[in-house]
């Protein structure tokens, strides 16, 4: 087996930066120092810092007071482990598109078994380039390496980004030059080994196993065997959930739609990455705007505090979709048509209807112009901008009465099923009106329609295709049986033929 390790050295900071519009552009990010802090309130320390803060001398483990003394204008954000876990699971769902064996056991790394994936995606350099391109698009700092063992891949990724070894003997030789501190050994044991003068794994490998077991326990020997491939390394593998739910909380209140577009794009891109991983689509999803508490004002003093209900914006599609650009365009159109009754403090995207992905078929010699939209994209764009009920087509209804023979249908098929009816006019009047013409000429008919007794709209009519004295082709009717009794009279016009 071959394992790819996606090392995520700045996962906690990336979970914060990718939600901030100011840090979406590297130039803007370089102008605003930011530090992630953790620890108890009495002893805050830096967990991580972005590049501008590090350039000013800030580093992980530094006391917050010392960091603020060194860089007074540094922005700080409290670390939330739940955001790290949510991002890790999102990345696991994304990685599922490249391998069905994805492991989340290592906190700062994602492991993929890629031996079978190489036959699908091509040789390792091509697969590695695809992984890096996707991770950059997701805003994730990373280091990638490949090795025959999971732990070996993690050590190689920590030591040298881009290393790829397929042979166990080569891996063991390379591991001998790796620092013990990068071997994922217990930190207390690493410190004890450093006191003994042990710095590299080759020094550890050369020591007698019995002595290592007495000093550090048998768990260390098992760890080294799994690292070198001398013992199996069973893992629990990730399985993507059947629903998607992602949330972005803001550090400030948002009252207008434009400020919601960046977090909306990020959520939609995460949804598309999740769908690609599980080879699915989305038929409907909901945007939830979580509001801040509001003061109910009566006169000049606040009477009480209440939280308005969350605003839900449903985005429904007639056909399943997973293209991020199209999903964002539809979600933005729906969001802009909705009102924001109160300031927004968080945006959540929930998708439960996730059918399997079915690629759309296209002709080899497509005559559509290069800039023309596909019918499905145009249909969804119009529905999102104009509303659910603004776009429809006429479809046949099994009722012989002309007034009831057509119904509105919102499915909007490209080629609706043909209506198997006798000739009908293209222009049907809203209601029949008298037809007064002294020289009507009957071209076809009668077609008797006698129906509607069950709903109180009973009709008994004989329809004819007639030509008027001006040469127009009309669709008119007489009461049933009137023409057989004598001269025609009382013609009622119901439509015109084109």
Residue stretches low in confidence (pLDDT < 50, at least 5 long) are 22-30, 296-301
Helix content range: 25-40%
Characterize the quaternary organization of these chains. Answer: single chain
Overall 3D form: elongated
Total strand count, please?
20
Q: Average pLDDT across residues?
A: 82
Share of residues in strands: 25-35%
Q: Based on helices, strands and strand pairing, what is the structural class?
A: alpha+beta
Number of individual domains: 3
Distance separating the two termini: 71 Å
Helix tally?
17
Radius of gyration: 35 Å
In spatial order, strands of the major sheet run 16-20-19-18-17
Biggest pleated sheet:
5 strands, antiparallel
Task: Describe this entry's structure for a reader.
The protein has three domains: 3-228, no CATH class; 247-296 and 305-353, DNA polymerase, Y-family, little finger domain (Dna Ligase, domain 1); 427-496, no CATH class. It is built from 17 helices and 20 strands. It is an alpha+beta fold and 498 residues long. The protein has helices at residues 11-17, 26-29, 51-55, 64-70, 81-95, 118-121, 124-138, 150-159, 168-176, 187-195, 201-206, 209-216, 218-228, 261-278, 324-337, 375-386, 482-485, and strands spanning 3-7, 34-38, 45-49, 75-78, 102-103, 109-113, 143-147, 244-254, 282-291, 294-298, 301-306, 311-321, 344-353, 393-396, 406-409, 427-434, 441-451, 459-467, 473-479, 492-496. Strand 5 (102-103) and strand 6 (109-113) form a beta hairpin. 32% of the residues lie in helices and 27% in strands. The strands form six sheets. A five-stranded antiparallel β-sheet has the order 16-20-19-18-17, with no helix packed on it. The protein has a four-stranded antiparallel β-sheet with strand order 5-6-1-7. Strands 8-13-9-12 form a four-stranded antiparallel β-sheet, covered by helices on one side.
């Amino acid at each position: 087996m071959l394992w790819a390790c996606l090392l995520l050295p700045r996962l906690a900071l990336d979970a914060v930066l990718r939600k901030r519009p100011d840090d979406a552009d590297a130039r803007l990010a370089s102008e605003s120092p930011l530090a992630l802090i953790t620890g108890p309130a009495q002893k805050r320390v830096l967990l991580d810092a972005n590049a501008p803060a590090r350039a000013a001398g800030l580093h992980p483990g530094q006391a917050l007071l010392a960091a603020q003394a060194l860089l007074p204008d540094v922005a700080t954000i409290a670390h939330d482990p739940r955001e790290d876990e949510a991002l890790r699971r999102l990345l696991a769902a994304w990685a599922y598109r490249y391998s069905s064996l994805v492991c989340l056991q290592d906190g700062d790394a994602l492991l993929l078994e890629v031996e079978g994936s190489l036959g699908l995606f091509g040789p390792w350099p091509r697969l590695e380039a695809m992984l890096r391109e996707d991770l950059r698009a997701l805003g994730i700092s990373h280091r990638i390496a490949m090795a025959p063992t999971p732990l070996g891949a993690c050590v190689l990724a920590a030591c040298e980004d881009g290393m790829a070894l397929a042979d166990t003997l080569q891996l063991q030789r390379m591991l001998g030059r790796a620092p013990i501190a990068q071997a994922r050994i217990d930190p207390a044991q690493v410190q004890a080994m450093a006191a003994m003068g042990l710095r590299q794994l080759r020094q550890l490998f050369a020591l007698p196993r019995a002595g290592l077991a007495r000093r550090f326990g048998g768990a260390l020997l098992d760890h080294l065997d799994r690292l070198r491939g001398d013992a199996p390394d069973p893992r629990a593998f990730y399985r993507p959930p059947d629903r998607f739910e992602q949330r972005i909380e803001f550090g400030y209140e948002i009252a207008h739609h434009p400020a919601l577009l960046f977090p909306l794009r990020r959520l939609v891109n995460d949804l598309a990455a999740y769908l690609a991983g599980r080879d699915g689509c989305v038929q409907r999803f909901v945007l939830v705007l979580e509001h801040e508490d509001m003061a109910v004002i009566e006169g000049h003093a606040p009477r009480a505090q209440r939280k308005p209900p969350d605003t839900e914006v449903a985005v429904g599609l007639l056909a399943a979709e997973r293209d991020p650009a199209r999903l964002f365009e539809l979600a933005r159109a729906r969001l802009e048509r909705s009102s924001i009754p109160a300031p927004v403090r968080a945006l959540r995207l929930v998708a439960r209807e996730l059918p399997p992905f079915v690629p759309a078929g296209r002709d080899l010699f497509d005559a559509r112009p290069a800039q023309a939209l596909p019918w499905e994209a145009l249909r969804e764009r119009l529905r999102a901008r104009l509303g659910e009920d603004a776009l429809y087509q006429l479809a046949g209804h099994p009722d012989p009465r002309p007034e009831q023979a057509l119904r509105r249908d919102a499915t909007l098929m490209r080629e609706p099923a043909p209506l198997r009816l006798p000739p009908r006019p293209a222009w049907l009047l809203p209601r029949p009106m008298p037809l007064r013409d002294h020289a009507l000429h009957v071209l076809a008919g009668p077609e008797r329609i006698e129906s509607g007794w069950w709903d109180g709209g009973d009709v008994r009519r004989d329809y004819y295709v007639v030509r008027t004295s001006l040469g127009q082709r009309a669709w008119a009717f007489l009461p049933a049986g009137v023409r057989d009794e004598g001269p025609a009279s009382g013609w009622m016009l119901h439509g015109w033929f084109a």
